Amino acid sequence: MRELSVYYCPKCGYYAYYQLSRNAVCPKCDVSMNLLPMRYQDFMNLSCPERDLLLSKEILKRTPTLASRLSAPHKAANYRETIANLSYRIQELEEENKTLKSTVEWMHKTIWDLIKKQKNLSQEP
To answer: Is 13 left (phi over 0), alpha (psi -120 to 50) or beta?
Structure first.
């Protein structure tokens, strides 16, 4: 038989003991509960304040910081920065294209010059 595991709700902190993770759904929030990285027996040996402190730390570890929550909409809809990056990339590609175009023109000119020389050499007696 499988050993019990401790699961907790990341929203409200409710905890319970389950053998299977598919059963671990918070009855209050109706969300999947997270596995506590601790054996069942070790958790049972903790006092109530120690359990509360442990669960609080686990919830805070997995909760995004205030700064990341405030900047999330900016990151999701940061069109100006995206447009600026794409404009800069377009300029780089246009410059590279100019260089490549001049190289191709030089190669064509060189090939035609060599063909003309070869024709002139073959026509001379």
So the answer is: left
